[in-house]
Amino acid sequence: MSELLKDKSIIITGGSTGIGRATALRCAAEGAALLIADVNDEQGAATVAEICAAGGRAQYVHTDVTVTAEVRHMIAVARDVYGRLDGAFNNAGIEGNFTSIVKMTEDEYDRTVNVDLKGVWLCVKYQIEAFLEQGAGGSIVSTASVAGLVGTRGGSAYCAAKHGVVGLTKSTALEVARKNIRVNAVCPGIIETPMLERMRSETNVTHASLIAQEPMERLGQAREIGEAVVWLLSDLASFVTGTAMPVDGGYTAL
Ligand code: NAI
């Protein structure tokens, strides 16, 4: 077991499945003490059990990231259980409904932006508050997307939310740079997760057409996002803040 995140207390939202789960496994292997926060309690418990069985440290707390009281509770639990908060991976998100702006309803827009942007904003807001109270710095990584850097047809709500995460990341990074608090985002390309599987089964998008969008001619794996997140959360990235790092197999280089 290497020790890049040794004894760091880290929250991972959306850690029950997909990118969050794979990142949790990587962080635990690097010595982090984790709080997994999600609305999928069954899968969250399974992630925690897998980490603990491998000798890592993790607990689970039910948290809907769109609810202020639940976000504040999540942060309080991390500080209670581990004595402080050192970092967070704000990754919970939904794909929303990919359809033309003309067909998209206001309710669908609100639902997507509420989880994918306001949910991240609430987490960042109260995590920074905790870091400032503790006075010892901290590192935040939020999951944006390549859809936070370029447009996607049918993604008027999702892309708006993900571009919002990039703006939120840059602005808050500047606000707290002098306090040794780093705020970054990762921008995954097309990654094989339950979310992608849902999108594939609900639309007529084929595996071949997804691969055709990726210069490396393959889909990304959730673990490959986890590798970047471990680095951004760790002290190795001590001079990195305000970035939106593509981990996309070259998707945005096209
Ligand atoms: P996923 O569906 O496997 O994981 C999302 C997790 O977030 C689930 O565990 C879900 O229960 C949780 N979640 C949803 N709403 C929540 C809420 N209100 N409060 C707390 N937890 C909530 O999907 P995936 O692919 O792992 O997505 C993770 C992040 O990566 C999302 O922000 C997504 O937008 C982003 N992303 C995914 C890409 C992909 O190709 N899979 C590409 C770029 C970004």
Short description:
The protein has 254 residues and is α/β, with parallel strands linked by helices.
Tell me what you see in this structure.
This protein is of the alpha/beta class. It is built from 8 helices and 9 strands. The strands form 2 sheets. Strands 3-2-1-4-5-6-9 form a 7-stranded parallel sheet, with helices on both faces. Helix 5 links the parallel strand 5 and strand 6. Helix 1 runs parallel beside helix 2 and helix 3 packs parallel to helix 4. The radius of gyration is 17 Å and the shape is globular. 44% of the residues are buried. The mean pLDDT is 97. Bound molecules: 1,4-dihydronicotinamide adenine dinucleotide (NAI).
Supply the key terms.
254 residues; alpha/beta; 7-stranded parallel sheet; two-stranded parallel ribbon; 8 helices; 9 strands; 46% helix; globular; binds 1,4-dihydronicotinamide adenine dinucleotide
Radius of gyration: 17 Å
Low-confidence stretches: none
Judged by helices, strands and strand pairing, the structural class is alpha/beta
H and E order: EHEHEHEHEHEEHHEHE
How large is the share of residues in beta strands? Answer: 15-25%
How would the global form be characterised?
globular
**Largest sheet: number of strands, sense, barrel closure:** 7 strands, parallel
Through-space gap between termini = 37 Å
Number of beta-strand segments = 9
Count of alpha and pi helical runs: 8
List the helices and strands and how they pair.
Elements: E1 9-13, H1 18-29, E2 33-38, H2 41-53, E3 57-62, H3 68-82, E4 87-90, H4 106-134, E5 138-143, H5 156-176, E6 181-188, E7 191-192, H6 194-202, H7 207-212, E8 220-221, H8 222-233, E9 244-247
The structure holds 1,4-dihydronicotinamide adenine dinucleotide.
